[in-house]
Amino acid sequence: MLIKRLQDAGFTVIPVKDMPEVILAHRYESNLIIYYPSGDIDHIKLVSTMLTEMCRDDNKTLCLTGDPIDIDAARKVHDSNYITTVYPRPVDLNKMTADMLKYSDIQVEYKRRKNILVIDDDIDFLTIIDRWLSEDYCVDCVRSGMDALSYLEKSRPDLILLDYQMPVMNGYQVMERIRLNPRNDGIPIIFLTGKNYRESVMKILERRPDGYLLKSMPRDALLDSLDRFFAGTILTT
Fold it and tell me: Does CATH number 3.90.550.10 belong to domain 2-111?
C-alpha cells in the first residue's frame, strides 16, 4: 500500500531487505530512506545504527515506520538525531506521502550549489577564501559593510560570512543593518573572527549570529564546517 502510494506520487521506490550487506549495496541509490524496523532488538539497533551513520555521512533523510515498540528500539542509537520523522502504525499515508514530497524538495535544495557572500576588509583573506570555497560554492566577496548592503539590494545569498572586526562599520553593526531589511529575512550570518580566547568568543555569541568560524581554520576544516552547516537544513522535524 505504501509503495504504491509513493509510486503514484511520482517516486521511484527501491525495496531493500534490512540486511547490512544489502543496504550497503544500495547505499548511493537514494537520498530518502524509510526504515520499517522488525525482528529482535539487537538486529533493529544494528540496522538503525548503520542507517543513521549513512545519513550523517551522506546527508540523507531517514524516516521510520512500523510498530511503536520497534520504532522505539530503532531510536535508541547514538545518532538518533539523524532520524527525521517517525510514523507509528496505523500510518496516515496521505501525511506520509506529503512529507516525503517535502523532504524530497529539501534534498533538491540541499544539493543545489549554494551562494556564499564573504564580507571582510582584508583583500588577502578574501583572495584565499574565494580560492578555497569556489570549487564547491558560488562565492562573492565584498570589502565593507556598505558594499555588502548594496550587494544585498540586488542578490540573496544562501549564507553570509562576516568579519567581526572591520573599520567604519564592524561586523555586529553590519549584521544589524542586514537584519533590519525584511528582504534579508532568513539569511544566515556566521561571524569570522581571528580571536579564539573565551571572552572574545562569548562576546561574539552574545550578538546572536548563526555561528562563528575562526579565520585561522585550515581549508579542510572550513569546508567541513560549511558542509555540516548546510546539511543541518535536512534535519526537519
Answer: no
